[in-house]
DNA sequence: CCAGTTTACCTTTTT
DNA sequence: GGTAAACTGG
């Protein structure tokens, strides 16, 4: 390895170079979209190694996605020959898991602890509520799950949570009970991985000292997405800033995970608490044409709380952004398909094109249109491989092999496929378990009568599985379990079970390639205490929980890419469509209620816009089917925030010329039947005083809006209006001064 | 007492 | 449109 490696640094601009070659000290890099962030991060690591400022084992690099971690590793090994295995590179959850496996005893966990993903966590909570006879109407499991996770992410155990009334006291009590249940079953949820390893470092001085001395350089990707606990974890590991040099890369404008506890405030806190000497801004964008960047800059300027940054490019302005107003979501989808066809006639590949939307529910219409047109497409999102029910069932059996006391897994498959163990027997079992303070599996011996015999049969099945699996390689273990459990038989008899059968086979294949991968890069004899001797099965189950799989999109074929804006973060495409630019959808209505909610939505829009290299299409629809009912939306404020000269309207701008209702009709049916249907429905409802659902109206105080609902007649007539800036309101027509806009 | 059928409910984003 | 709880028949 050369002492100075000019080739490493060639092609970097001045700011990138400054960031990469900073002397070892704390640094905050504000890296705008498309500014070469990942390159800076990986080159920084390579530079530290090449300069001899650190050995591989001194490096800890943390990312948010497995994908980012893999990419970093791949790029790094391409840059210089290095034993990446002795570096700690991974997601927060992955690294915490590694820490806890190595120190499970000190952390108070069984060696074989299992990881609950969120759906496992939810069912664990439901089971808990049932066993404590808690009314799940009063304490909805989802709320409780959010409550528990939010507190864990703040670093708060039940004892630290403030309770001021009976209700909050009860919730804290349930939080405590949930912890006990997890501890008894030997399982940890996602947030627990973080909190437990934080507490391990905090309380165990030898362990803390060991890692503080080992890691001299901590590099953090997507720093704006860290939550409070992750920040404290980093701070602890760097000995409050006195130890490892922390190199944090982030973009406050791309912070889009506040909803799950991410705290942009960490960037300010880091600057202050670590006394970061200087902040380096990467503002040159290598991705997008000028007009696209101008639009992105114009949008994000509307946010008040920013560290401040303005992207620029040496590329030309490029094309204007194309805007399309559709009569309906179906129309929007049809237009997108037409446009894609035109692009392909121009010689564009489908894989250059991405369709972005705010929420997954929007993909269906787009998929339908693409499918009907025979255009290949790939959807990112939705169910991932390890989240499919047949896979989760198979994994549950595997978990029971490793740990029969895993009640979540037990409850999941005890009667699946059905084997005559009904609700009644399970109730008795749960009662016995509570009475004896033991797991469901252990409670079987305390039963009597029929319940005991059927459950002992099940227990015997598990024993036979374990015996049959002994000594087999992992893929064969899985195959054996799938067979013996009756899962294969069950899906064979199910008319719609063919895909599921194929997935179960795929699980065996996945295990085979997982084992092969592990063999190629064996966990090197780590200098850490008790190098995790987890065994293939535990490693595979951990892999399944932490990396739920590639969002089910097959590689290879040339296909249009469909995904949510969140999923698109970090990606780039030559041509991007952002669809559904409507108030209530994007920005999402739920976000309007939250403080700073609109700002987060705006950052989301900023992320969406900056995905495009050459061409950006923006579209919205007047009516949209959502959750089975038609909604009448007005154009998103974000579209209004883009300067008009950057835009090219593909549809006439009639927005002030009449109601949505009127111009749907004016288009003379050429835009499909959807607007007509809305029209007819409105007429049939005998709307009062000449107002119709879907019509644009003006109000002295609230401004412009669209009527989305109506009821009553005469003096009692009321309409619900969705105002651009004031939100949705019910107004009595006799009182409110509404005028057609 | 269990198993298949119907109904209800939900969906903003996810490691 | 898809799953999980409630229902009802065997």
CATH topology of the largest domain: Rossmann fold
The description of the largest β-sheet is:
8 strands, mixed
Number of helical segments with 4 or more residues: 30
- Portion of residues within helices: 40-55%
Look at the structure and give the CATH class of the largest domain: Alpha Beta
CATH superfamily of the largest domain: P-loop containing nucleotide triphosphate hydrolases
- Proportion of strand residues: 5-15%
Q: What is Rg?
A: 28 Å
Task: Tell me the count of domains.
Answer: 5
Tell me the distance between the termini: 71 Å
Q: What is the overall shape?
A: globular
Just name the CATH architecture of the largest domain.
Answer: 3-Layer(aba) Sandwich
Low-pLDDT residue spans: 522-534, 655-689, 712-716
- Counting helices, strands and paired strands, the structural category is alpha/beta
How many distinct beta strands? 21
| pLDDT averaged over residues | 83
InterPro entries: DExx_box_DNA_helicase_dom_sf, DNA_helicase_UvrD-like_C, DNA_helicase_UvrD/REP, P-loop_NTPase, UvrD-like_ATP-bd
Pfam family, one: PcrA_UvrD_tudor
Keywords: ATP-binding, DNA-binding, Helicase, Hydrolase, Isomerase, Nucleotide-binding
EC number: 5.6.2.4
């Amino acid at each position: 390895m050369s002492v100075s490696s000019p080739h490493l640094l060639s092609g970097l601009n001045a700011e990138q170079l400054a960031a990469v070659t900073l002397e070892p000290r704390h640094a905050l890099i504000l890296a705008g979209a498309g500014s070469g962030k990942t390159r800076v991060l990986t080159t920084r690591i390579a530079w530290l190694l090449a300069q001899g400022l650190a050995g591989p084992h001194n490096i800890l690099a943390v990312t948010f996605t497995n994908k980012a971690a893999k990419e970093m590793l791949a790029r790094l090994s391409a840059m210089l020959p290095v034993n990446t295995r002795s570096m700690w590179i991974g997601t927060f959850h992955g690294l915490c898991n590694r820490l806890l496996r190595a120190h499970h005893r000190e952390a108070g966990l069984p060696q074989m602890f299992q990881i609950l993903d969120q759906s496992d966590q939810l069912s664990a909570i439901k089971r808990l509520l049932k066993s404590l006879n808690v009314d799940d109407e009063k304490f909805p499991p989802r709320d409780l799950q959010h409550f528990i996770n939010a507190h864990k992410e703040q670093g708060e155990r039940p004892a630290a949570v403030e309770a001021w009334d009976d209700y909050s006291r009860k919730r804290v009590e349930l939080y405590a009970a949930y912890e006990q249940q997890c501890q008894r079953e030997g399982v940890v949820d996602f947030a627990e991985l973080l909190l437990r390893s934080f507490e391990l470092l905090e309380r165990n001085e030898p362990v803390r000292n060991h890692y503080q001395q080992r890691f001299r350089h901590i590099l953090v990707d997507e720093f704006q997405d860290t939550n409070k606990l992750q920040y404290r974890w980093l701070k602890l590991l760097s000995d409050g800033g006195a130890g490892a040099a922390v190199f944090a890369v982030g973009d406050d404008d791309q912070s889009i995970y506040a909803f799950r506890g991410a705290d942009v405030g960490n960037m300010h806190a880091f600057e202050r608490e670590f006394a970061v000497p200087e902040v380096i801004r990467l503002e040159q964008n290598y991705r997008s044409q000028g007009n696209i960047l101008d639009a992105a800059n114009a949008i994000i300027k509307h946010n008040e709380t920013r560290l401040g940054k303005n992207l620029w490019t040496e590329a030309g302005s490029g094309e204007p952004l194309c805007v399309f107003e559709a009569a309906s979501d179906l129309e929007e989808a049809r237009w997108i398909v037409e446009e894609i066809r035109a692009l392909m006639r121009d010689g564009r590949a489908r894989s250059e094109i991405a369709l972005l939307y705010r929420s997954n529910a929007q993909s269906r219409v787009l998929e339908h249109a693409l499918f009907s047109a025979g255009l290949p497409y790939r959807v990112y999102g939705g169910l991932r491989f390890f989240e499919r029910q047949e896979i989760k069932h198979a994994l549950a059996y595997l978990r029971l092999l490793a740990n029969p006391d895993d009640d979540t897994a037990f409850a999941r498959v005890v009667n699946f496929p059905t084997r005559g163990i009904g609700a009644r027997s399970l109730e008795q079992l749960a009662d016995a378990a509570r009475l004896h303070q033991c797991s469901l599996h252990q409670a079987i011996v305390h039963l009597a009568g029929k319940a005991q015999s059927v459950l002992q049969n099940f227990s015997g099945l598990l024993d036979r599985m374990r015996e049959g699996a002994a000594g087999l390689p992992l893929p064969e273990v899985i195959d054996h379990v799938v067979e013996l459990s009756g899962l294969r038989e069950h899906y064979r008899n199910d008319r719609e079970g063919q895909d599921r059968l194929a997935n179960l086979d795929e699980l065996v294949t996945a295990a085979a390639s997982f084992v092969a991968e592990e063999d190629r890069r064996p966990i090197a004899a780590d200098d850490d205490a008790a190098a995790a001797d987890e065994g293939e099965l535990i490693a595979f189950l951990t892999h399944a929980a932490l990396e739920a799989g590639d969002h089910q999109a097959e590689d290879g074929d040339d296909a249009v890419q469909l995904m949510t804006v969140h999923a698109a973060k970090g990606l780039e495409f030559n041509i991007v469509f952002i669809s559904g630019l409507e108030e209530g959808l994007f920005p999402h209505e739920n976000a309007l209620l939250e403080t700073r909610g609109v700002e987060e939505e705006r950052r989301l829009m900023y992320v969406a816009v900056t995905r495009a290299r050459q061409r950006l299409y923006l579209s919205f629809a007047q009516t949209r089917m959502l959750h089975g009912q038609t909604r009448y939306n007005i154009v998103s404020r974000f579209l209004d925030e883009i300067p008009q000269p950057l835009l090219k309207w593909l549809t006439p701008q009639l927005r002030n010329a009449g109601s949505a209702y009127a111009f749907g009709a004016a288009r003379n049916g050429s835009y499909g039947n959807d607007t007509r249907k809305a029209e007819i429905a409105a007429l049939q409802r005998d709307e009062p005083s000449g107002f119709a659902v879907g019509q644009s109206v003006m109000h002295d105080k609230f401004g412009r809006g669209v009527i989305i609902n109506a009821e009553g007649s005469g003096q009692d007539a009321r309409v619900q209006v969705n105002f651009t800036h004031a939100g949705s309101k019910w107004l009595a027509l006799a009182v409110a001064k509404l005028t057609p806009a």
